[in-house]
Write a structure and sequence with these properties.
Oligomer: single chain
Number of strands: 22
Low-confidence stretches: none
Domain Pyridine nucleotide-disulphide oxidoreductase dimerisation: 356-465
EC number: 1.8.1.4
Radius of gyration: 24 Å
Mean pLDDT: 97
CATH superfamily of the largest domain: FAD/NAD(P)-binding domain
Strand content: 25-35%
Distance between the termini: 71 Å
GO molecular function, one term: dihydrolipoyl dehydrogenase (NADH) activity
CATH class of the largest domain: Alpha Beta
Shape: globular
Cofactor: FAD
CATH architecture of the largest domain: 3-Layer(bba) Sandwich
Subcellular location: Cytoplasm
């Protein structure tokens, strides 16, 4: 016999668990199904983000940054160390503890908000009685029924043909987080967010890292000025980033992995490495969802087809996050999850794709929101820019990290902020001011007139706004 709910959410990642909580807050009898397991086979809600993505990668980035500071920067502060070493097992154990804290936090939030949690894989059985029957396959099988279903099943790492993941020598983001010791040579295919972040972690710990990228431009999605600065800084740090690469073969042996490729000049090359991380994007995850049972429409990429409000082709069925169109970002999924719950309640959920921030948690961090200069040039829009370096920022000097800048782009006629691009310390935190400003249609003059605390990194944002009108005060 089916267990009846108002709303059933399939997937407990950022989009799913947030959608379930918001639906429960709005008075709906809500269930959330998620199949992630921890090392003991117990529930581990939070999806890719919490288990093998955003959260654990930041934990390792933090640990590796401490190690690099201790080895290369503490002396500048008068702190002397000798016999510096890294205990990789302990570092990974700390990462696992951080993940568990987040898993447990989500389970607590379900209990607090009276969301019924089912541990297993959710799949459609049939459409009936104006709703949908959903099977939960797990340690304890159940059948649920609801008239409103939210699909938030996320995405999986894209495999390179001929280099399938074994999570030992050829690694996805999952395996990259569990390398048991520092490899002497680490290869990375793909210079996107995952490739750069994981490459940075192991480079800081002593690995010789080579990143192979098929595209001719580095960080093509970012503003060109930021991408050029990032390429320069990463090269200085020791990351070997090769562009316009064509992979011809990936071969495994008892000693490691060899990647055969053609470089930008057309020369045949071979990269021998102890381990290889493949980070060439992600694909929507509908494995086991059984969409055919109810006639759920997918596109040619395997993503669930939705309209601007996240409605699928089926009445009462919604989809959010990585499994639909748009950027594969945890915070985008969260916003869609909230919006869908509110739309189910007859409210007007809000998601503005133009103000979704992007962040790469390397050192320096990279963050941006809105349009890049090259995008504005392509569409022929008149604009003006202002840029301010962290080299001229007092707080950055005190931190000992003056790399990078803040760049602001505004409409040439109305002065509305069209984009903000940051490379530098705590860019991930600084970008929020730009998101708020753009959401409220602020002008660069608005930011320039707002008092910012001194000394703070945020003053660089104010100065970039001043620079739009060519009147910086500290540079």
């Amino acid at each position: 016999m089916s267990k009846n709910f108002d709303v059933v959410v399939i997937g407990g990642g950022p989009g799913g668990y947030i959608a379930a909580i918001r639906a429960a807050q709005l008075g709906f009898n809500t269930a959330c199904i998620d199949e992630w397991k921890n090392g003991k086979g117990g529930p581990a809600p939070g999806g890719t983000c919490t288990n093998v993505g955003c959260i654990p990668s930041k934990a390792l980035l933090q640990s590796s940054e401490h190690f690099e500071h201790a080895g290369h920067h503490f002396a500048d502060h008068g702190i002397g160390l000798s016999d510096l070493k890294i205990d990789v097992a302990k570092m990974v154990s700390r990462k696992d503890a951080v993940v568990k804290q987040n898993n447990d936090g989500i389970l607590y939030l379900f209990k607090k908000n009276k969301v019924s949690f089912f541990h297993g894989r959710g799949s459609f059985v049939a459409a009936k009685d104006g709703g949908y029957e959903i099977k939960v396959a797990g340690a304890a099988e159940d059948t649920l029924f609801a008239k409103q279903v939210v699909i938030a099943t996320g995405s999986n790492a894209r495999q390179l043909p001929g280099a399938e993941f074994d999570e030992d020598l050829i690694l996805s983001n999952d395996g990259a987080l569990r390398i048991p010791s520092v490899p002497k040579k680490l290869g990375v295919i793909g210079s996107g967010v995952i490739g750069l972040e994981m490459g940075s972690v192991w480079r800081r710990l002593g690995a010789e890292v080579t990143i192979l990228e098929a595209m001719p431009a580095f960080l093509a999605a970012a503003d060109e000025a930021v991408a050029k600065e990032a390429a320069k800084v990463f090269k200085k740090q020791g990351l070997d980033i090769q562009l316009s690469v064509k992979i011809s073969a990936v071969e495994k042996s008892k000693d490691g992995v060899t990647v055969k490729y053609t470089d930008a000049k057309g020369a045949e090359q071979a990269l021998a490495c102890d381990r290889l991380i493949v980070s060439i994007g992600r694909v929507p995850n509908t494995v086991g969802l059984n969409p055919d049972a109810v006639g759920l429409k997918l596109d040619e990429r395997g993503a669930i087809v939705v309209d601007g409000e996240c409605k699928t082709n089926l009445p009462g069925v919604w989809a959010v996050g990585d499994v639909v169109r748009g950027p594969m970002l945890a915070h985008k999924a969260e916003e869609e999850g909230v919006a869908v719950a509110e739309r189910i309640a007859g409210q007007h959920g809000h998601v503005n794709f133009n103000t979704i921030p992007w962040v790469i948690y390397t050192s320096p961090e990279i963050a941006w929101v809105g349009q890049t200069e090259q995008q504005l040039k392509a569409e022929g829009r008149a604009y003006k820019t202002g840029q301010f370096p962290f080299l001229a920022n007092g707080r950055a000097r005190a931190l000992g990290d003056t790399t990078g800048f803040v760049k602001m782009i505004a409409d040439a006629n109305t002065d509305e902020i069209l984009g903000v691009h940051i490379i530098g310390p705590y860019a991930s935190e600084l970008i929020s001011e730009a998101v708020v400003a753009m959401e409220f249609k602020a002008s660069s003059e608005d930011i320039a007139r707002i008092c910012h605390a001194h000394p703070s990194l945020s003053e660089a944002t104010k100065e970039a706004a001043l620079a739009v009108d060519k009147r910086t005060l500290n540079f």
